[in-house]
Each structure stands twice: as C-alpha cells, then as structure tokens.
Amino acid sequence: MRVVAAGCAMVLGLMVAAVPAFAEGTAARDYALGQHGSLRLTVPLSWKDKVSQPPNGLPPTILFVPESGAAFKVLLTPIWSDRSGAQLPIASDVRKKVEQAAAQAKAQVLDPDVTVLEMAGATGVGFHYAATDRTPNPGEYKRMDQGMLRVGDLLISFTILSQDASEPANRSALAMLEGAAHSTKQTAPQGHAARPDELQITQTDQAYVLTVPVSRLVMRIPLNGLSLTNSAIGGPTDNPRYFHFRDDMKQVIGRIETEVQRQYGIRPHVRDLRPMDGVEFVYCLNLTRCIGCRKCVHACVAENNQSRSPEIQYIRVLKMPNGTFDMEKGDHHYATPTVPEKGFFYMPVQCHQCANPPCVKVCPVDATWQEKDGITVIDYDWCIGCRYCEAACPYFARRFNFAEPKIPKEQINPDMAYLGNRPRHKGVMEKCHFCIQRTRAGKYPACLEVCPTGARKFGNILDPTSEVSHILRNKRVFVLKEEVGTLPRFYYYFDV
Prior knowledge:
Elements: E1 26-32, E2 38-44, E3 47-52, E4 61-66, E5 74-79, H1 91-105, E6 116-120, E7 125-132, E8 143-151, E9 154-162, H2 168-178, E10 181-183, E11 200-203, E12 207-212, E13 217-222, E14 226-227, E15 244-245, H3 246-264, E16 269-271, E17 281-286, H4 295-303, E18 316-321, E19 344-349, H5 358-362, E20 368-370, E21 376-378, H6 388-392, E22 399-400, E23 415-417, E24 429-430, H7 436-439, H8 446-450, E25 456-460, H9 467-474, E26 490-493
Parallel strand pairs: 16-23, 17-26
Antiparallel strand pairs: 1-2, 2-10, 3-4, 4-5, 5-9, 6-7, 7-8, 8-9, 11-12, 12-13, 14-15, 17-25, 18-19, 20-21, 22-24
C-alpha cells in the first residue's frame, strides 16, 4: 500500500512501514532535533534505523527496518512550530486532518467504514485510522494505519504498513509512538550514535570495507565488484539504495521484465544505463519557434510508458499573451487545433534537471538523487510516495500516481531503463529524466525528435562544439525562477 500522509501548514506528510513485534526486548534511543531538543523512542532491539537530516533546519525523518524476519519499514517525522510563530494544530485540528486523510483513503480500501480512533501518548493525544488496500500490487503492504500524535512540543506524523491487522507489528509500532517523549534541551542536529552492531562502510584505494564491529566481521569488496552511480556533481554517490552488486542488478532487472510480461503480455528489454564520462546534458528551447502543438507532450507520454488512464504528462505547454510573462496565469488547457494563435507565445515546462535540486534535499529515503551527467533520477522501488519532492519543486515538474497506471498493451515501449521509462506502480513519484533510455545510448530525447519546428535543442555542455554550447555562448538565454537558486540545466531563448 502506498499513501500520502495528511499535511498542515508545514510539511506533515509521512510514511511509516510495518513493524515486527518486540521480539528481543526494547531500548530507549534519542534522536537529536538541534535547537528543538530531542525525541526519545523506546525501540525494539531488532529494529535498525537511519536518520535523514535535511538542510536549513527542517525536521529530520527517522527510518526503521528489520535486521531479520518479515520485511518492514518505519518512517516518521517530528514536526515543530515554524519560524513565523505559527503554532502546531490543537487536538481538534489534528483530528480533522486525520479524518480528511481517512476520507481520501476510502476509495482505495476494502473496509466499509474507515474509523478514526483516538490514541493517548505520554504527553499528548493523537488520532489514527486503519484500512486495507483493495488491490495491492505484488510485494506491497495490505494494511495501513496512519495518524498524528502530539508529543510535548512536537507533532509526530506517521503511517504503519503491514500485511495483516492481527500482526503484533501494528501494536508494537503504536506502543512505540504512544511512549515517545520530547526533551526541549538543545542537542546537536545529527541522529543517535551508531550502535555497536550496525554495519559501517569505509573505502580504501582498492576496495569498499564493510565492518560489523561487535562481531568483528569484515568484508572487503573490490572497487570493480560494485556497480555505482553518481549523485552530486563531480562526486561519487552516497545513496545506499543504488549500491547494487552486478549480479543483484541482473536479478532486479529480471524481476522487472517478468512483471511487465505478466501485466502487459510483452517481453521488454530493461537496461541499467549509467552516465557517460565527460557528458553533462542541458536543454535549450527556442520560444520564438514553439507553436504550441503539444507533439512533444504526446511523444513523451508514448516514449516513457506514462499512464494513459489517468494520463500523466511530464511536459506542460503554457499559452501566454505576447509581452507578458506571468506563468501562474499561463493557460495549458488551450485547444490545440487553433495553434499558433496570433498574439500569443507558447512555453513548454518540464523537469529542469537543476544543478542544485531541492527535490533531492527533501527526499526522506534517498529515492531521488542527481547523477554526474546532470540528470536527477528516481528509483521507483524505493520511493514511498510522500510527495515531499513535489512540494519542493518550484517548476511543478513531478507527478504522483494516484491510481494504478493503465497502458494499452500495444502502446508499451519495450525498450526500457531501470531509472527511466520502466512502468511505475501506483503511489510513486515520477518525472522527466531526459529520456535516459535514449540519451545515454547516444540518441535525442523523444520530445526533440518530434518537434516540427526545431525549437528544441539538446546536448553535452562539456563539448564546446555542441549545438547547446553554441547557443549558450551566442544567445541571450534565461532560466525560470533564477531567484530560487536551483541552477536549472533547461534554458530558454528568443530569436532577436
């Protein structure tokens, strides 16, 4: 089950996955919140955790996973009052928000009635509801318990996912939350100290070294034994989600191909395409030539296996009066047969592949990151659908699958990439990725190839002889919302 947590004036959405019973006893763990004190949770010894600390003093997220046994994930976020002085919602407001989330879930669940229940914590009250997914995908959780709980001066937003309502995991997770405590004493803004049995990873010139100190277990893996991606510009990835062994990636791709064949009746070709050395992609768009035909929109949908019902589109084309530039008033529902219409110009908007992507910074589970060729990617297997990235993007470039995507068998593009156009499930984020199944294989993006006027230009900015390099040197280019500091790799210009 994939869901979106209820929100408030600050970011309240959050995912928490199912939890096993307290099989090995419990221990108190403190999670530092900087100037907002610390959160103490009584956690089963069989749970591992990871703290993601976003920049700019935003609330951290806490992820729990099992050391062994049935798979689960727990992700929760403590929320505090923002700098504007706005206070956390009172109990009645919290109940209302949970009721709203429950109402939204009704359309996707088996339960005839989704009841909101009160929960009493050590220092406050909260509310939660439980529901069973009507049509969970293979490997997804069936049971969901979602809510918010006041803990001292914090509001904890949470979701619990499991396979069955009778599992002790559900009770264990609620017990941990109801026993939570908040200390206002200022602490360092990092998470708790590493436990003695936690895996530690270091790197030498020849190998990655994996150590479990308590058992003195050491594993050395040659550098050429791992297949890695890159995240920030110029540096190796620190994203653990994508540390796939080559043999393991073969198994992952095999699973994806099997799922596609079972669902659509075709055998796809899925590749794990990595960035090329010496390549950083940029996009340039000539607004003088764009006629608003939307052929780029539909080519993108077809190439990237986007849902047809409901249809998901990565590209929006805005129709705006000449001499104006108010994107908020741009019309992207105009009638295509009338284009180009006198007195108007057209501006396609999509993911700008920012050099400073805010979407990456807010992802609580490292499901999205930036590769060395400038493309920000999403690992759909790890996305939890919290929609933080959607809220952080100033270009409205990310899309959320509210329903199970539908694609006619005859319209499936069988040439797929793991981080690109393979079919996505309900409840995950997706966006433009510069058609990596094409561009990393030496081809142009689908939107460029279909453009009838040559308005779109794409290429390697690190190649001084490329067309995009020529445009950036000789045209008066501009980027959208320069003031927010995202440093887009998507440039616009006019013929003058």
